[in-house]
Specification:
Blueprint lengths: L1 H37 L9
Length: 47
């Protein structure tokens, strides 16, 4: 029972870490897009 609780807690922590990582990646992408626009480059036209 205790091991199951610990595993569930660890899984929850891993999910939270992944959520934070994804949020940071999104913020970096937004900053890059902002920079590109400031250089008169449309980031949506790069691909």
């Amino acid at each position: 029972m205790e091991q199951e609780r610990q595993r569930a807690q660890q899984a929850q922590q891993e999910v939270e870490q992944e959520r934070q990582r994804a949020q940071q990646a999104q913020q970096r992408a937004e900053r890059l897009a902002e920079y590109l626009r400031s250089q008169n480059i449309d980031p949506d036209q790069l691909m």
